[in-house]
Amino acid sequence: MIPGEILYAEDPVPVNEGAEVTRLTVLNAADRPVQVGSHYHFAEANPGLEFDREAARGKRLDIAAGTAVRFEPGIPVDVALVPIGGRRIVAGLRSATGGPLDA
After folding, report:
1. Is 26 exposed, middle or buried (CB count within 10 Å of its CB: 0-12, 13-18, 19+)?
2. With contact defined as beta carbons under 8 Å apart, do 79 and 37 qualify?
3. Which HAMAP family would you find in this protein's record (predicted)?
4. Sign of the C-alpha dihedral, residues 91, 97, 101, 103?
5. What is the pTM of this model?
6. What whole-number distance in Å separates Cα of residue 37 and Cα of residue 4?
7. Between these two residues, 92 and 42, which has the higher pLDDT value?
8. Is the terminal CB of the chain with fewer CB neighbours within 10 Å at N or C?
9. Which range marks the domain in which residue 85 is found?
């Protein structure tokens, strides 16, 4: 191995393998694009996004870490959500949860 060399896997690396997936259609009813990051508690996403927030409670986008989905005004987008892992504590954001998801 050469210092700084990047070795790529021969096969695709599975992301969120085995996680329960929830599929929702999201509509950006606002007049500006909205972007949501990979680990954001999706139920607390921008209020301009219209979707089933109760179905999204405790979930995040099923996308690679550090990436995001952009929602353009007036265009419906189908997304896949997976449960937030770890200790399942959501702090900050829009303060709709403010603590443990399973309490």
Report:
1. buried
2. no
3. Urease_beta
4. positive
5. 0.85
6. 28
7. 42
8. N
9. 22-100
Closest listed residue to residue 61, CA positions, set 6, 100, 23: 23
Q: Distance between CA atoms of 95 and 93, rounded to whole angstroms?
A: 6
CATH number of the domain within which 47 lies: 2.10.150.10
The encoded tokens of residue 81 equal 């959500």
Six-digit token pair at 40?
A: 């954001």
Amino acid at 18: G
Residue 83 tokens read as: 């449960």
β-pair partners for 83: 59
**Pairing of the two strands 22-28 and 77-83:** antiparallel
Confidence tier at 79 by pLDDT (50, 70, 90): very high
